[in-house]
Design goal:
Blueprint: H1 2-14, E1 24-27, E2 33-36, E3 43-45, H2 51-57, E4 66-70, H3 72-76, H4 78-87, E5 96-97, H5 107-113, E6 117-121, H6 125-130, H7 133-138, E7 143-147, H8 153-167, H9 171-195, E8 201-205, E9 215-217, H10 222-228, E10 232-233, E11 243-245, H11 248-254, E12 258-263, H12 286-296, H13 306-309, E13 313-317, H14 326-337, H15 347-358, E14 368-370
Helix pairs in contact: 8-9, 9-14, 14-15
Length: 375
Amino acid sequence: MRIVAVSTVALMGLLPLPAFAQSFTITDVAGREIAFDKPAERVILGEGRLLYAVAPIEKDDPFAKIVGWRNDLKNNDGDGYAAYVAKFPKGKDIPFLGSLTDGTLQTETLVDLKPDVVLLTIGDKEAADEVKLEETLKGLGAKIVYVDFRVHILDNTEPSLKILGKMFDHEDRAEALASYWKTEMARVTDRLKDKKPAEPKVFMYRAAGLVECCGTFGPDNFGLMVDLAGGHNLGSDFLPGYTGSINAEQVVASNPDVVVVTGANWSNTKDAKDFVTVGPNAAATANDSRKALNALMENPAFTGSTAVKNNEVHAIWHQFYASPYQFVAVQRLAKWFHPELFADLDPDATFKDFHEKFLPVAYQPGYWVDAKAAQ
């Protein structure tokens, strides 16, 4: 009997584990507990730019389990979209869906795609609740999972990465990614905590050339990135949420020491004009971006500012605000605000290293530009 028992245990060790061994539960950033019988296999991205978070988790093929997505990546970051579909051509064939926030998402499309997960940003929750999307999806056997890389970046970036790690069965990658994020953030925040330099007044001009002056950021997202980089975000003085607008007269009265505009390749976006193209593969057109940036500073909101007088005007990739790559933006902002203190910091090298370690596409510089060319 003893021999038989040992043989049975050995045999069990060679057999595949039953399906219930893969079951797990996650708590999403909306505080909802969601039970899974197995990792996700058919996922809809309620925002296309969530690909930037999925890619380091599903590095071998970010599109492997994506069955539908919004077209905002193509519209709001044409070069980023092009890089991914060039490496993974199947991305071009994945159907685009409508948006919850403007009412163009069709329930029939969700039914046809047979998802097991619809991945949404926390900003979509109110719209999803209004249309009772969760109830509809339950009838399909699908689940909503909320993540956030935009509204509360310090509170939600790490939990969101770990949610994706569990969903896609790559918890090790999620842990490594979260650790990298914290380490690279600390390269700025630890030094600022130690040295305590004076904070320049910074105005972040949100989506310059795409939205009217003067869109900006409140006390989170890029506004918080400014603070983490050792600046004082002027938008936080006027806006309670992470984004909004203030009038040009208020910008004049605030007299920023530094102006940073956010830009991207918005050439696929309706009515976009006069924007600054920064982002992947934009280095080759840096002179054109610089001209566009200087043209934006001819707005009366900026012409008499200390920032313009001292050539402290810069542009940075807008999509840092919707991805888990905020540590790169914080490093770049810190070098603009405190060039001597962070003379040894190279955000280009950081982002290149991140691509090599975590992302399936090659690094293509061009994520920022200065109004004045480097001497």
